[in-house]
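FAQ: What does a ligand-bound record look like?

Like this one, built around protoporphyrin IX containing FE:
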Amino acid sequence: MNWFTKAITSTIGRKIVVAFTGLFLCLFLVVHLLGNLQLLANDGGKSFNLYAKFMTTSPIIQTISIGNFVFILLHIIQSTILTIKNRQARPVGYAIVENRSTWASRNMGFLGSFILLFLVGHLANFWWKMKFGEMPIIGIDGMQVKDLYFVVSEAFKDPLIVGLYVFSMVFIGLHLSHGFQSAFQTFGLHHVKYTPLIQFIGWVFCIVVPLGYAIIPVVMYLRAL
Ligand code: HEM
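The answer part, i.e. the structure of the complex:
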């Protein structure tokens, strides 16, 4: 085993990979949300479709997108191994749950698995269709553009899908409520001055971002009534 393999298969190495990829995915969540909020612009989907065309054709974005999928995989693999090793080291579980630990911190594996299920369905619904599926084509500013806005607005006419999205955002918020702060702890950022600030940003992040996502299907559903 060379030093690199040794480093990323050690417990601390795995934790660093989970923390680093997790923070990158937080950044992705912000960018993805800002892009998706264009679904709410009252322009018949023009700005969202132009944005989607750029996101799915720009070579730079395509490269970042591959990196994003690699990071998602690394995050899942390393956190799963850490969870299994943790369970093996402590098969019975603590008799008394430490007062300061939250429900989310004790159930990150469960929350992560749910998010993975959401992601598989989500990608099949939108991303796969955009990349490989049949899509209506419309003309915008003289360009032929795939009408992803139509696909998304059709999906969010179904109250079941809207409910599933809102429900999933609660799980994502809970996952973030522990994950965000925990990543900074892994990096050793423990300081009387900075820890409360990181915790505050973590709380704002885990509420505002999922709320932003949840609003989109709800508004689109209500608009289509
Ligand atoms: C209202 C909520 C959401 C809407 C309307 C939405 C919409 C979309 C659409 C239309 C695409 C395909 C076009 C593109 O690649 O940009 C997409 C891709 C994607 N979405 Fe979402 N999304 C939402 C929430 C989420 C959440 C919460 C996550 C993460 C947990 C997520 C993860 C992804 C990923 C990883 C991709 C593939 C991006 C890539 O090509 O690199 N989305 N989403």
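Follow-up question: can I read anything off the structure? Yes, for example: Residues 32, 36, 52, 55-56, 65, 68, 115, 119, 122-123, 126-127, 130, 148, 152, 165, 172, 213, 216-217 surround protoporphyrin IX containing FE (CB under 6 Å).
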